[in-house]
TrEMBL record:
<dbReference type="InterPro" id="IPR003439">
    <property type="entry name" value="ABC_transporter-like_ATP-bd"/>
</dbReference>
<feature type="domain" description="ABC transporter">
    <location>
        <begin position="6"/>
        <end position="238"/>
    </location>
</feature>
<keyword id="KW-0547">Nucleotide-binding</keyword>
<dbReference type="InterPro" id="IPR003593">
    <property type="entry name" value="AAA+_ATPase"/>
</dbReference>
<dbReference type="GO" id="GO:0016887">
    <property type="term" value="F:ATP hydrolysis activity"/>
</dbReference>
<protein>
    <submittedName>
        <fullName>ABC transporter ATP-binding protein</fullName>
    </submittedName>
</protein>
<comment type="similarity">
    <text>Belongs to the ABC transporter superfamily.</text>
</comment>
<dbReference type="GO" id="GO:0015807">
    <property type="term" value="P:L-amino acid transport"/>
</dbReference>
<dbReference type="GO" id="GO:0005524">
    <property type="term" value="F:ATP binding"/>
</dbReference>
<dbReference type="InterPro" id="IPR017871">
    <property type="entry name" value="ABC_transporter-like_CS"/>
</dbReference>
<dbReference type="InterPro" id="IPR052156">
    <property type="entry name" value="BCAA_Transport_ATP-bd_LivF"/>
</dbReference>
<dbReference type="InterPro" id="IPR027417">
    <property type="entry name" value="P-loop_NTPase"/>
</dbReference>
<dbReference type="InterPro" id="IPR030660">
    <property type="entry name" value="ABC_branched_ATPase_LivF/BraG"/>
</dbReference>
<dbReference type="GO" id="GO:0015658">
    <property type="term" value="F:branched-chain amino acid transmembrane transporter activity"/>
</dbReference>
<keyword id="KW-0067">ATP-binding</keyword>
<keyword id="KW-0029">Amino-acid transport</keyword>
<dbReference type="Pfam" id="PF00005">
    <property type="entry name" value="ABC_tran"/>
</dbReference>
Amino acid sequence: MTAPLLNVRGVETYYGNIRALNGVDVEVHRGEIVSLIGANGAGKSTLMMTIFGKPQARTGSIFFEGKDITRLPTHEIARLRIAQSPEGRRIFPRMTVLENLQMGASLDDLKHFKEDVEKVFTLFPRLKERQAQRGGTLSGGEQQMLSIGRALMARPKLLLLDEPSLGLAPLIIKGIFEAIKKLNKQEGLTVFLVEQNAFGALKLSDRAYVLVNGRVTMSGSGKDLLANPEVRAAYLEGGRH
Ligand SMILES: Nc1ncnc2c1ncn2[C@@H]1O[C@H](COP(=O)(O)OP(=O)(O)O)[C@@H](O)[C@H]1O
Ligand SMILES: [Mg+2]
């Protein structure tokens, strides 16, 4: 088996004296969609942010393409072509859609700019219609499209998505998840997805991990976890089906 694209080994992350991650092991291979599911406060966003070096892991290591990135500053991690759509989307509200996309483009790669914008507009035609509109005036779903689009402008090898479905209507969520699937199938993009929406995430994913109180308690194929009674009881019963 080839080495994982992303390899998280025994990571512990603290906020002051509070340990938010307690020895996390996660692997993401090229071409996979892998999700991390877990309740609010489990440490999902902390893992995403730790991969990006902010905060840094206190213990353990993170490897990307075999390179140890645990102690790298965030901008150097981004330069390795890891891109993220953070929790809450974090688009620039006063900038237009097009300007937001410009902010995501890597400076080394401006010659691709037009082509890459067109790709984003093909994936999310809604953004094309609204390219001159300010980000802050977009709907939640459109802001999520923009946040993903901006991350794609960096031509990532690995796309990290933190709760893309949060606060969106079911039909909009479906569209977002379909776009992620399309990117993975058509472009071979590798995706690491964090979600409280366990049903949607597991259906979409090749593999998944369950995070409880900063620890991975279960892992398996998306299909197996969907069928797992413990997962069903904790994350799926009464949820979105
Ligand atoms: N900036 C912070 N300072 C202190 N504690 C934090 C901070 N961010 C998150 N935490 C705590 O770390 C734990 C994990 O949070 P988080 O990673 O945001 O969980 P999730 O994304 O799974 O909801 C929670 O107990 C949360 O209160
Ligand atoms: Mg979170």
